[in-house]
Amino acid sequence: MVFPLGSVINALAILVGGALGLLLHGRLPEKMRQVVFQGLGLCVLVIGVQMALQGKNGLLVVLSVLIGGVVGEALSLEDRFAGLADKLKGLVRSSNTRFVDGMVNASLIYCIGAMAILGSFDEGIRGDHSILFTKALLDGFASIALASTYGSGVLFSALPVLVYQGLLTIFAGSFQGLFSDYLIAQLTATGGTLILGIGINLLGLTVIRLSSLLPSLVFIVLLSAFSS
How far is the CA of 164 from the CAs of 39, 160, 201, 206, 228, in angstroms? Predict the structure, then answer.
């Protein structure tokens, strides 16, 4: 079994960056935090577009997002995710009113993306940690900005990152032959579509229930497998 070293480093980077963000909390002017978030939102949009354009079959991506959204809402994934974060907030006795937003938004930003998927696969299949190490650096800096605004909830996003990426690495190492270039491209395009939603949320343009769209990542695998 492949040890998910890249995911461990990634989680540690989020904790360190989040801790620095908490130290800066209240010391950064509101306008500066706003500009940082706007810049982060714009960058996330650019990354999302780049990822979405890597797809080989746009129709399957659209179908996956639509079907995934319906299934996600039927399962109340957004509400369940928020409920779990609320329970965690109670366990740590946090008084931060933005705890849930911080944990959910940070978890989605860190978990949904080409680097999370490709990096985990690359680590599991080829034993190459470089993509996840690079992602750890980026996530660490993002955690500073996120934690300075949302607070301690951002630190707890390190756990889903560790579990999600770690499982992907172990899975990829065990089933190397299942992931073709076509499938990875389709996963990347679907993830990029969701990343666009994160950017829109960060910019405050509207509120997209991204947790309910997560099943689309499962459906794109199924649909792409049948179409290839």
Answer: 27, 6, 22, 27, 26
Could you tell me the CA-to-CA distances from 81 to 11, 105, 117, 139, 172 in Å, in that order?
A: 19, 11, 21, 21, 26
DSSP code, position 9 = H
Q: How far apart, in whole angstroms, are the C-alpha atoms of residue 181 and residue 189? A: 12
CA dihedral (167, 52, 205, 145) in degrees, to 10, reads 50
Q: What is the pLDDT of residues 102-133, one digit of tens each?
A: 787 788 778 866 678 778 887 887 788 888 99
Burial-class residue 90 by CB neighbours within 10 Å (0-12, 13-18, 19+): exposed
Q: Is the pLDDT of residue 94 over 60?
A: no
Q: Are the C-beta atoms of 171 and 124 separated by less than 8 Å?
A: yes
User: What three-state secondary structure class fits 94?
Assistant: coil
Phi-psi region of 76 (alpha: psi -120 to 50; beta: other; left: phi over 0): left
Among 210, 107, 105, residue whose Cα is nearest residue 157: 107
Rounded to the nearest angstrom, the gap between the alpha carbon of residue 109 and the centroid of all alpha carbons in its chain is: 4
Burial code (b: 16+ CB inside 10 Å, e: under 16) for 173-186 equals beeeeebeeebbbb
Alpha helices per DSSP H over the chain: 5-24, 30-52, 58-74, 77-91, 99-111, 114-126, 130-150, 158-174, 181-202, 216-227
Q: Which amino acid is at 136?
A: A
